[in-house]
Amino acid sequence: MTTAIPDGDVHDEIALVESRIEELTEQIERCRKISLAAKLAIVAGALWIVLTSTGAVQFLPAALIAALAAAIGGTVLLGSNKTTWVQTQEALRASENLRAELIGRLELRVVIENGKTRH
Question: Which of the residues 10, 32, 54, 93 has an alpha carbon 20 to 30 A from that of 16?
Answer without folding.
Answer: 32
